[in-house]
Amino acid sequence: MKIKRTVSDIIFDTFNILFMIILIVATLYPFLHVVFASFSSSSYVMMHRGLILWPRGFNLKAYSFALKHPMLGLSYLNTIYYASMGTILGLFLMSLAAYAFAKRSFPGKKFFLFIIVFTMFFGGGLIPTYLNIKNLGLLNTRLVMFLPTCISTWSIIIMRTGFSQLPESLVESAYLDGANDFQILFKITLP
User: Can you tell me the distance from the alpha carbon of 94 to that of 33, in angstroms, rounded to the nearest whole number?
Assistant: First the structure.
């Protein structure tokens, strides 16, 4: 069955498509500008302050300079280390908190959940975060790169909601089979 489109539908779709095209160009152009500038000669990039729509004076000197840098390998290893440690530690800690809030009843549960939601709306700020990191002795350590931000309150709420959707009978049957809370979390709930 063919749906008839009215004039207002066509006008709306046209403006919607134009808006999306403008949004795509505004989003992608900064990346393309950096790529085009990296393939352009350094003299052209220094003299030309406007938009670079195509590489001028094509060369690969910027890439040869970057690849010859002695710290490049260490930089990639640091990136992999911090990203993986932050992800693994964050997933572990947030899943523990979310499971406790979803499946367990304990004194003060509503209060602690309120505190978690409250911190989501009202952040501490940059200076108090710095002072906390300094007082904990984490300045100039590797832990400071991922430990302060490895727990996301939003992720705890999302995971808690997902864990709450699991049938209680599944958890009860796991208890009857001899599983403890950690086994239920990591072998049933998370997968």
Answer: 38
Tell me: the pLDDT tens digits for 151-185? Answer: 888 999 999 999 888 888 888 888 888 888 888 88
**Of the candidates 98, 120, 122, 121, the residue with the CA atom closest to the CA atom of residue 109:** 98
Question: What SS3 state is found at 99?
Answer: helix
Give CA–CA dist 147/76, Å, rounded: 19
| pTM confidence score | 0.69
Nearest partner of 39 among 22, 17, 62, 20, judged by Cα: 62
Residue burial 85-104, b: 16+ Cβ < 10 Å; e: rest: beeeebeebbbbbbbbbbbe
Q: Under 8 Å CB-to-CB from 5, ≥6 apart: which residues?
A: none
Residue 137 φ/ψ, nearest 5 degrees: 75, 30
Count other C-beta atoms under 10 Å from residue 80's C-beta: 10
Does 53 have pLDDT greater than 80?
Answer: no
Tokens of 71: 């710290």
Is the domain of 126 the same as that of 153? Answer: yes
Same domain, 103 and 59: no
The answer as to whether 1 is a domain residue is no
